[in-house]
Structure formats: C-alpha cells, structure tokens
C-alpha cells in the first residue's frame, strides 16, 4: 500500500478530530456534560491521524488509479468509524452497531436514523449529525467531479469532459476550482440558514436543517421531521434548497463566472426539472381526486415529498405511505432516480436514465434501419460507446446490488416491504423506506443488528457507485501491489 495513501488518510482523520471540537464547544456553551464525548474522540483522532502522517510521511507523490480506489474507499471506511465514536460513548446509550449506522447514514447523506426522541438529544449531538451530512455532501461533490471520472466509474468520463473544460478555462488550478465549489456550497448553506431562521426556526434548528438540506441528507431535529414545524413557508423554502443541492455544482460555477452554458449540464438540469414538474402534477391530481385534498395543499404535499425523495434528501412533511397504493408504488420507483450528476444527491442519477433512454432509442432505430448511421448524442455532444456501456453496466450493477441486499435483509426476518424499500433506500441513500417500520413515520431503531450492518454496507456501496467497491475487491486489483 502506498505511503501516500496513508498520509492522506492520516490528514483526513486529523481533520475530523479538529471538527469534533465544534460540537464540544457548543455543548460547553449550553452547559451540557456531553462535551467530553467529543473532546475524547477528538484527541484520539488527532493522535492516530498525526501518527499515521508521521510514520508514513514521504516525499514521493506517485499516484495511479489503484491509489485512487484505495484512497476513496479507505477514506469512507476510516471516517465512518471515527465519526461513530461520539455516538458510541455519548449518553444516548447507542450500541456500536447503532453508532456506526448513524455515522454512515450521516456521511453518505442517507438520513436514516436509529435515534428516537430527538427533542431530548443534546445540542452538540444534533449539530454533529448535521455536520456529518454537510461534510459528506461536499465530499460527494468533489468525489463525483474529480475522483470518479479518474476511476472511470459509471460513465463519469463524460462528466470529466465538463469538469476539465471548466477547470482549465475558468481557473488556472484545480485547487481554485474546488475552492469555488466549496464557496458556493457554503454560500447556499448560509442563505438557507438565514431564510429558515427568519421563518421561525431557532438558531440550532436553522443551522442543522440548512446543513442537511444543501447536502440533501435529511437529518432533522424532531422525530416527525419537517411536519414538526407545521409551516408551509418553511416547506417551500426547503423545496428550493433541496433542488439547489440536487443540481450540478458545475452549473453554479459556470453561471457565476459567466463562462457560458454547457449543453450537457444545462440540458440535464432542464430535463430534470421538467421531470419533477410532471411527477408533481400527477401526484397532485391523485391527491386532489382520490383523497379530496385542497388543490393548493395537494401541490405543496406532492412537491415537497416528491422532491425530497427524488433528491434523496428524505425529509418528511406528510406520510406518503398512507396516500394509497398508487402513491406508494410511485414513490418506490422515484427512489431509484436521484438528482443530477455532480450534485449531493444519491441513487442512480438522472443523467444515467437519460443515457439509457437514448441508448434504447438508438438501438430501435438501428433495428428499423440496419444500414443507418446514428451517432450517440447527449444534449448535442457526441459520446463514446464505452461511456454508454459504463453507464448501462453501473445501472445493472446498482439494481443487482439492491436486489441482493433486499434478499439478504429478508433472511434476517424483515417483511417484504421493509426489505425491498430498505434496500432501495440504503443503496440510493434516500433515508426513509416504506411500511410501518421504516416508512416516513418510522425509523430504523427496531430492526436487528444483522440487518443494520447489511444496510451500512448498502449505504457505502451506493455512495461509492457500486463499481468502485467491486473493482477494489477484485483479485486483479491487488495482484501487482502498490507503488510507494
């Protein structure tokens, strides 16, 4: 294993230790004794991270694709274990399994929780849960734009064209490009915080929900999620910022720098928004006609829950599981969609559905006109066949992994609805599933440890785009070892 990988992992762990001091100081300010949990965890992370850097420090910076895979997976596993420490030693009486589940759910921006009575949870812990999703969100953006294209995962080669074009023409260095994305991410979070605070949320509530909305994570400060606030204006505000988190951050960079519209990015955003409008109209009509809900309320209910599920945020304003069979089936399939590529959203991603539809249409045209020449164009840009194959392969693996996880969950004793919706929710990083146990009105606290560990694997697998993990676990990957 390369010493460089250990240096980066050590620096990452050291950074997590520094961040743990934030909730510690908040608990001290609120005179809450839980501050020592974060301080003890911080000291341990700082010590281990510093030791890793010192023992593995090197002046050699050789980096190849295998280092990229090892670093990506290593960071997620190491950080997940480290960030679980405050949960484990806190006064919440969480088991080690529950602690890791909560931490992984936060970092992957899944939003599934095992904590009940959130109103009694110390402020530092609520902030920590929000920070995990916020950190995970920006990490996901950077991974999607810079790491996954390098690893050639799931058609991200196409996105590399966009990121390379933007970074080279707009900024002289990649570091400046990343700084711009982080700046936009921070700015959106601050704007969301101010809006929510002005609309009646306390400072703590506004901070947590701002972080978990922009990251499309979905952790809340109340067991009933957004329904707790009973405020239409809060819901519409969150709708706007959930959408903001599900749009490619390259779109904002190009917009602010006035560097011109990318046809690929702009086309994806346009079709994504159009898709959401159509689905919201259909669900609204269903609510108004079948459940006799007032039209304006039906639109708000549909808009909030549809956008929450599609962007994989997982906030809940109304229990869509009680809207009838049509709505339940519809929301189940919406869990597969996800937001735009290069955003904080999870699941398959809208771009891959677009490419899949275009590939199907192209094959039909070739059957009808065998001698015809049909170049593969995605929003006016010609893309190579291997990119299309990569997209279709990842989508197939995603579905296969979800089915395998669902079957595994059913073997632990969970019912059909809980098993399949839990698998889709975990791999898609959505949060709530369907049914009485893990549905919008429930949580994951009552399921067994074996099922929780399966869901932990599913959450990480989904966030790492499935293929990354399979390549890392293959014998060929390890056959030649790593360079120093």
Structure description:
The protein is mainly alpha-helical and 484 residues long. Helices cover 68% and strands 1% of the residues. It contains 22 helices and two strands. It has helices spanning 3-19, 21-29, 35-56, 65-83, 85-88, 96-107, 123-151, 156-170, 174-198, 203-214, 232-245, 249-257, 263-290, 295-310, 325-334, 350-368, 385-411, 416-427, 435-438, 449-463, 467-473, 475-479, and strands at residues 377-378, 381-382. It has a two-stranded antiparallel sheet. A hairpin with a 2-residue loop joins strand 1 (377-378) and strand 2. Helix 16 (350-368) packs across helix 17 (385-411). The longest helix has 29 residues, at 123-151. The relative contact order is 0.11. Residues 161-172 have low confidence and may be disordered.
What is the C-alpha radius of gyration, as a whole number of Å? 22 Å
Helix fraction bin? 55-70%
- As an assembly, this protein is single chain
The helix/strand order is HHHHHHHHHHHHHHHHEEHHHHHH
Give the gist of this structure:
With 484 residues, the chain is mainly alpha-helical. The chain contains 22 helices and 2 strands.
Give the SSE map:
Blueprint: H1 3-19, H2 21-29, H3 35-56, H4 65-83, H5 85-88, H6 96-107, H7 123-151, H8 156-170, H9 174-198, H10 203-214, H11 232-245, H12 249-257, H13 263-290, H14 295-310, H15 325-334, H16 350-368, E1 377-378, E2 381-382, H17 385-411, H18 416-427, H19 435-438, H20 449-463, H21 467-473, H22 475-479
Antiparallel strand pairs: 1-2
Helix pairs in contact: 1-3, 1-4, 2-3, 2-7, 4-6, 4-7, 4-21, 6-7, 6-20, 7-8, 7-10, 8-12, 9-10, 9-11, 9-12, 11-14, 13-14, 16-17, 17-18, 17-20, 18-20
